[in-house]
Structures are given as C-alpha cells and as structure tokens.
Specification:
Length: 416
C-alpha cells in the first residue's frame, strides 16, 4: 500500500548524508533457483528433489534455515556445519538469493532507503523496488514493497498512477528484509553500520507491508514471506511487530489474519462510499460496510491488537468535522487506531493537503474518542501515517517521508 508522504519542508534538500552507488551483484545467475523465500515445506520439497535423503531432510532444512535467516549467510561456503561436498552440491544447484543493490541512501536522521533490482521474471526488463528503514529509540522499522506498481488506481496515490508491472515473489519480499539487516549489520557477527541506529538490541524490530503495491493482491507470496519473517528460528519477528496494510481486499482480510496472525492496517481515507469509490476505487467492489465487517472478523482482535485505520487529509474533500465524527461513529466497537496523513501533492495530483489547523481539529475529534495517539512533537509525528512514501525510484529521500513512516509505525508494535 502506498499513499503520498507529507510535503517535504525546506530542510528536505539537505537531508541526505550519502548516496551510495552499489555495484551490481549476482548478475548472470537469475535463472538459478534460490533457496531464499521458500517456506520450510517447500524448502524440504526442493531438497528432496535435489536428492537429499528423506531421513536427513528435517535436519538439513533446519541447518539451512538457521544459516539463511538467523545468521544471514549470503553463500553456501560459509555454512560451516554442512559438509563440504554438500555445500558444493548445493552451490551447483541453487543460489542463496540476493537482489542487485542499485543505490543506498542514508539520511542525516538515520533513515535509509535502498533501491533493489530484481530479474524481469516475465516483466520484459528487470524491475526495481524501494525499501525504507526508520530507526528510532529502541526500535527500527522496515517498510517493504509487495508489488512493482499497483493495479488499484487510488486517486490520491502516486503509485496508483504507475503501471502494474508484476508481483514480487516471496523470495524478493524476504530478500528486502534480509539485505536490509545485512546492510545494517543486524545479523550475529555482522558489523553494525555507522549512523543513527537503535542503541541496543536488534536493528530491525518491525516490518510493515506498506511499500509499493497492494499486498493482498499478491496473497501467496506475501503470506509466505510474512510467515518467514515470524519464524522463531529465523528472522524471528514478533507477529505483533509485522503489519500488513490493505486498501480493502475484503475476502482476504480475515484469511490473512488466520494464516499469519500479523497486525492489520486499513487504507480507509473516506467515510462515505461515494467518496471512497473515487479515492480508493476497490471500494466499488467492497464498500465500507463490508470492509468494516471484515475488520470486525479479523482474528485475534483486541484492545492490545488493534487495527490501524489510515486516513489521508485532503483539503475540502474528506477533512471536515463531520467527516471526523462519522469516522469515530463508523469505527465504534472495533479495537482501532487512526493515523492521519497530511497529503503530499505529486505532479499531476488533483488534491491539496488540508491546512494544519484542519488536521489538528480533525485529530482533536478522533483523539477525544480515544482513537489516536496524542501529538508528541511540534512536527506532528503522531498524526501522520501510512503508505505512499515510496513514490519513485529516482526520488531523493525526504524528511516528509520519514515523518509519515514514523507516525505510522508509532502504532505498530506499541502494545508489545
Ligand atoms: S492500493 Fe496502495 S499502492 Fe495501490 S494505488 Fe491504492 S494506495 Fe496506492
């Protein structure tokens, strides 16, 4: 899911501390199958097909899993508790799987953005996606993409104007997390990267599926990837620190909750169907009442596991006091948080951002109803949110993007 980030301020042009042009890696082995992104069952099947004896399968899966996800091994040679012969055999058949890292941008405030290039896989040419990392005191959040482009054409969203190219594979979704951890030095034996990072503990503590694309339109790959994120012997992220954001693919909402147990965010943005039909066109198929019914059915919902509702603030469109009151009314009975997102106009967009006074007035109404976090800083980080940060591969990292993500992740994992 992506929605526009808040407008960049005057400091934007100074925010980058560095842009690294990374060498293109792994070229030429695109056709070799990767072991990254396979579920445990599929990894076992793959090893079985490669001739691993049935009685050794469980052990081999465990070993590989440990090296791939706990240790972050980038090749078979480093997997020291696997025999040399087997390592050589595996290396002849498979790759561990790393994307090409095209650029790495590091903001002075610690935010990092990576541009990854993946093989075309039928798309005609290689594809590129962005992954963003936001460090904070005590945690680090990674915003991960699920598709290249998006087919859902939300009218406020820059990604919605881009052609849908293809779904990412589970391998490509998982690789965003693995390479981010690698770049940060977040694996055991990794050397911690320089710059502003959480002082203690793990560097990637939270993952949000809020980059480019609608995750539920790429269900199987996203489900598999999130299960790998949460596997206790691997990347080992708490399910309460993994969030999937959807524009409202209603039939799959309870299903993804049942299959993965992750947290849910909804790109709501309007409280009336006639308006949401325009802002989030999937609403024509699954109107607000159905969407909220699916939210109520989300497995494991409680005050400690609330759904985040994202609401982009569009001047004169959805930002009235009446809209705010209706939002509160609609969400009654649903354990929920609301994230308000100042709109960041992009070239050709027909919307403007609501005034700050309007945003504050709106926030006041939802705050009084107990749905939003208090405003913690003058920057308004607690009333910003959600998707749309990852607008264009060539764009520079903006302070506004950081603010948007910070606020959105402020509600991700707080209840742990
Ligand atoms: S589903 Fe998300 S990424 Fe796709 S157009 Fe809508 S807001 Fe943008």
């Amino acid at each position: 899911m992506t929605v526009p980030a808040p407008a960049a301020n005057a400091a934007t042009s100074d925010v980058l501390a560095g842009i690294v042009k990374a060498p293109l890696a792994v070229a030429g082995r695109d056709a070799v199958p990767s072991l990254l992104g396979l579920t445990r069952d599929r990894l076992a099947d793959t090893l079985r097909e490669a001739g691993i004896e049935e009685r050794h399968l469980r052990m081999r899966v465990g070993q590989l899993w440990h090296w791939l996800y706990h240790r972050g091994a980038a090749d078979f040679a480093s997997m020291s508790n696997i025999s040399k012969d087997l390592r050589a055999d595996l290396a002849g058949r498979f790759v561990v799987g790393r994307p090409e890292l095209v650029t790495e941008q590091i903001s002075v405030d610690g935010t990092r953005k990576w541009l990854f290039r993946f093989p075309s896989r039928g798309a005609g040419r290689p594809v590129e996606v962005e992954t963003v990392y936001i460090p904070e005191e005590g945690r680090g959040t990674l915003c991960v993409s699920s598709q290249v482009g998006c087919s859902l054409t939300c009218s406020f969203c820059h990604t919605g104007t881009q052609t849908m190219v293809r779904n990412l594979t589970a391998e490509e979704i998982v690789a965003q997390v693995v390479v981010a951890r690698e770049r940060l030095g977040d694996f055991p034996q990794g050397e911690k990267a320089e710059g502003r990072l959480p002082a203690e503990g793990r560097l990637v503590t939270n993952v949000v599926m809020m980059g480019m694309g609608e995750p539920l339109m790429n269900y199987d790959a996203v489900r598999d990837a999130m299960q790998i994120f949460a596997d206790g012997d691997g990347l080992s992220l708490s399910r309460r620190r993994i969030t999937l954001s959807t524009s409202g693919v209603v039939p799959l909402i309870p299903k993804i909750g049942g299959d993965t147990g992750v947290m849910l965010a909804i790109s709501l943005h309007a409280v009336r169907d006639d308006l949401r039909d325009v802002l989030v066109p999937i609403n024509r198929k699954y109107p607000i009442a159905q969407l909220l019914e699916a939210c109520r059915a989300y497995p494991g919902l409680s005050n400690a596991r609330r759904i985040t509702f994202e609401y982009v603030m569009l001047k004169g469109v959805n930002d009235s006091a009446q809209d705010a009151r209706e939002l509160v009314r609609l969400l009654r009975g649903i354990p929920a948080k609301i994230n308000l997102i100042p709109f960041n106009p992009w070239p050709g967009s027909i919307y403007e951002c609501s005034s700050w006074d309007r945003i504050e007035a709106f926030a006041e109404i939802v705050n009084r109803a107990g749905y939003a976090s208090p405003i913690r800083t003058p920057r308004g980080r607690d009333i910003l949110a959600a998707c749309g940060q990852l607008k264009s591969a060539s764009e520079r990292l903006k302070i506004g993007e950081r603010l948007a993500l910070e606020a959105m992740i402020g509600s991700n994992g707080d209840d742990d």
